[in-house]
Structures are given as C-alpha cells and as structure tokens.
Amino acid sequence: MEALTEKQGAVLKYIEKYQLKHGKSPTIREMREHFEVSSDNSILKHLKALEEKGHIKKDDTPRGIKLFESVKKRLESETVKLPLLGFVPAGGPVDSEEYIEGWYDVGPDISKGGKSTFILKVRGESMIDAGIHDGDLVIVDGKKPAKNFDIVVALVDNQNTVKRYIKDGSKIYLHAENKAFEDIYPEGELVIQGVVTSLLRFY
User: Fold this and answer.
1) Does residue 189 carry a pLDDT above 80?
2) How far apart are CA 62 and CA 21, in angstroms?
3) 63-67 average pLDDT score
4) Residue 200 to residue 107: CA distance in whole angstroms
5) Which position among 163, 167, 171, 179 bears the catalytic label?
6) Which of 76, 125, 139, 170 could form a disulfide with 198 if both were Cys (CB 3.0 to 4.6 A apart)?
7) Where does 4-157 show beta strands of DSSP type E?
8) pLDDT 10s digits, 32-59
9) Residue range 121-135: average pLDDT?
10) Distances (CA, A) of 149 to 40, 108, 166, 176, 195
11) Cα(57)–Cα(70) distance, rounded to whole angstroms?
C-alpha cells in the first residue's frame, strides 16, 4: 500500500474509530462535520486517494465504505449475543424460541456467565430504590450462586420477579427495594433462577 499524507491518515483513522464504535462507516456529512470543512469535495478527494492506495474499499450502501477487516475481527471477537427472555421457565433459561423475544450484542465483560447468561425485561416498580425501573433490561447469570443481598431473578407462583435475596438465619425471603411493595416470604420452595450482574437502559 502507498504511503498516506497526514490528512489522509487522519481520515483513515477517523473512519476506523467510527466503525469500531458504531459498527458502520461514517457518512460524508459526518466526516465533513468532524473535520470542520464546508465542502464534500475535500472529503471525497481524500476517500478517492485512500481507495486508490488500497486502504479502503467502497460498497453500494449509503455510507459507501466497507468495514475494515481489522474492525470486523474485533467486533466479532468482542461481542456476544444474549437472548432476551420474556419468561424464565421452572427448569431455568433455555434456548427455545418459545421464550426468546430477541437478541442483544454485548461485550464479553457483560456476559461473564457465558452461555448461562440471559437478559430479562423488568416489569413493575418494586426495585426503583435500587435504580432498577420498569422496562429496564437486566443481565442475569443463570449459574451464579445467590449470595446474601444479591439481586436475583426468582420464580414465584409461576411468575418471574426481580428482588433482593435475603437470608436471615434459617429464613430466606425476597426483599423489594420500594416501600410501597411488600417482601415475599415463600411458603414452599423458592426457585432462584439467576443473579443480576448488569443493567441495560435505553433512552
């Protein structure tokens, strides 16, 4: 590949950084605004030079530049697909379309539980004092043992609930982080289905 000028190198570096962050290439307008130039021509000139020198490849998408191979490899290695479950059955998380409502790509630091990790949408306001609100998505490790005061997903009366796990001597119950809600004292077996490890929220 031919050597680049300073400005061409800056454009190439910006495109790579943008691709890593967004998983796609920047538009001409975004590049123009980033480099604070008033005309598309200067950006197009640099892109043409980068293409001729073999540093970028064009495609037919509106954004016009294919993902770099280095970016593809990093994106593929750094993301994990987690299932969004509408309900967690008594047997625990399962890879069944019956319960999966969608998939989310997350980083490996979020999916530390590997294949036992799943996402559940929170319903209700019983955990708002812990910063968990209705509609939030919680990342759950289905294999991690619950410790005292962990926030967990539990199956109670055939319904999933997100509460704080409390063990007081021989007594075990689920604590709601909202004074308007009562704690849950199971009469029979309490099924802990996983420990909440992270929270996703979209605005």
Assistant:
1) no
2) 18
3) 86
4) 12
5) 163
6) 139
7) 80-85, 100-106, 117-121, 137-141, 151-156
8) 999 999 999 999 999 999 999 999 998 7
9) 92
10) 57, 25, 5, 11, 10
11) 13
- Interstrand relation of 117-121 and 80-85 (parallel, antiparallel or unpaired): parallel
Cα 183–chain centre separation: 30
> What is the mean predicted confidence (pLDDT) over 77-105?
72
Nearest of 143, 124, 96 to residue 184 by alpha carbon: 124
Q: Is-catalytic flag, 70?
A: no
Q: Which domains does the chain have, with CATH numbers?
A: 6-77 (1.10.10.10), 79-200 (2.10.109.10)
Q: How many CB atoms lie within 10 A of CB 59?
A: 12
Pick the catalytic residue from 25, 111, 126, 144. 126
163 a catalytic residue: yes
